[in-house]
Design goal:
By secondary structure, the chain is an alpha/beta fold. It contains 21 helices and 9 strands.
């Protein structure tokens, strides 16, 4: 069945109605209603709102042209294909004036009807796509909408009107962009989906934050978008000691990437970490950093996607990925982990499923009391949200549930094999609160830790 498009066929001659229905079914359409006059058809349009109406012009009670005109008056935008046995110019003018999709003469040609229907279907799909796009814009919360707009998405008159209402740019303003890791508590700030906070500074706005940047004065929304993207780059200054940047040297970055590719090709993993560290020291400005990260991903993208190392990140702009790092040292470790995954593939160690890598990392780090989903995700080189979803799908439990369960299993071993105090055991397996540890232990094993050890 072709698309679930609803047709309404109207003619006071049953034989014509049946013929048109048969043609539509031959064309692959199945959702077809019928009526014998304009008045009956108007009632059906009000209740079921078909997308395409195929109507005779000369009918009792209400003509096809009157039906078309009434539909337009009531705001229905269904496509009309008008049928008539009279080659009257005035009929055609009236039909076209009310935006009929086509005007066909009887006896009806199957080929001409198909051509008219195809044209109407294209128009219906365009209208549906536009309605869905506008609906998606209206459904977005302010944070998501603002984020998309600042990145250059949804740049049309509808979006522009909404953004002006949201920002209220009666006067020029500056944009305050704050590193999301600061977690400022201020109702005047908006948290964007990528973790950055933004605020709109008017003359009477006061603040006291760290790790922020303020844009130049913006007079319109176009300038606001430009300044926002400049501010995002400025936030990357935490990667650099020198805050005064030269023009980016992209050729230099290409040479660095070529050197890394050569090391990977010859499997010299022992020298890779130090090379990455030295190469990153050569990066002197945010644009070079973003370009370097992008080139690293693109150079090894196929292998990294195959390994699952880029799950959740492969379609993100590099600047979004950089938001997760505290500085250059953090970035170097992440890049080293990525290339380590590639070496494992090249050496035919095999493809380690993401959930297995998560479980393996937990086994080696469960005793760290500050171990979190974010730390585990960074260790397996994947997006935290993706790790959480994939691990639950594969194992039936969340990452944190698995971590706590593993810690409790280790505590049970210690309770039976050692004479350590319960608080010592709790600390040894990563629990900082003995009461919470006891409650979790009882929930899993049905008895308290002290009873279990006897």
């Amino acid at each position: 069945m072709k698309d679930n498009i609803h047709f309404l066929v109207i003619d006071d001659e049953p034989i014509i109605v049946e013929r048109v229905k048969k043609y539509l079914q031959d064309f692959g359409f199945a959702f077809i209603s019928t009526a014998t006059n304009g008045s009956e058809a108007m009632d059906k349009i009000r209740t079921s709102q078909p997308e395409i109406v195929i109507s005779d012009i000369s009918m009792p009670v209400m003509s096809g042209l009157d039906l078309l005109e009434q539909c337009r008056k009531e705001g229905y935008d269904c496509e009309f294909i008008m049928l008539t046995g009279y080659n009257e110019f005035d009929y055609a003018v009236t039909a076209l004036k009310n935006k009929a999709a086509d005007y066909l003469l009887k006896p009806l040609s199957k080929e001409k009807l198909l051509s008219a229907i195809n044209k109407a279907v294209v128009s219906v799909k365009e209208i549906q796509a536009e309605e869905e796009r506008i609906s998606s814009i209206e459904a977005m919360n302010d944070s998501a909408f603002l984020f998309n707009f600042l990145l250059g998405i949804n740049l049309d008159s509808h979006a522009s009107g909404k953004i002006k209402d949201l920002i209220k740019m009666e006067d020029p303003l500056r944009l305050l962009v704050i590193d999301g890791r600061c977690k400022p508590e201020d109702s005047n700030l908006i948290l964007l989906p990528d973790g950055i906070f933004i605020g709109f500074l008017h003359s009477n706005y006061k603040f006291d934050y760290q790790n922020y940047t303020i844009t130049e004065v913006c007079h319109n929304t176009s300038e606001l978008r430009i300044q926002f993207n400049k501010a995002r780059l400025k936030l990357l200054s935490r990667f650099f000691d020198d805050k005064y940047y030269n023009e980016p040297d992209f050729q230099k970055i290409d040479l660095l990437i070529n050197a890394i590719e050569n090391v990977v090709e010859h499997k010299k993993f022992s020298s890779l970490s130090s090379m990455l560290e030295e190469n990153c020291k050569c990066i002197k400005c945010p644009l070079e950093l973003e370009y370097f990260t992008s080139r690293m991903i693109m150079a090894f993208k196929e292998k990294l996607i195959d390994s699952g190392a880029l799950n959740g990140w492969e379609f993100s702009p590099p600047i979004f990925m950089l938001e997760q790092f505290d500085g250059m040292q953090d970035l170097v470790k992440w890049l080293t982990d990525l290339t380590s995954v590639m070496f494992k593939i090249d050496e035919n160690i095999g493809h380690y499923p993401l959930s297995d890598r998560v479980a393996h990392y937990i086994e080696g780090h469960y005793s760290e009391s500050d171990l979190s989903l974010g730390m585990i995700a960074a260790a397996v080189c994947a997006n935290p949200a993706y790790v959480s979803t994939r691990f639950r799908e594969d194992t039936g439990e969340t990452v944190i549930e698995h971590l706590n369960s593993f810690r409790l299993d280790k505590s049970a071993d210690l309770l039976q094999a050692t004479s350590m105090e319960i608080q010592e055991i709790a600390n040894a397996v990563g629990f900082t609160n003995p009461l919470y540890f006891s409650r979790c232990f009882r929930k899993k094993y049905g008895v308290s830790p002290s009873a279990f050890s006897k």
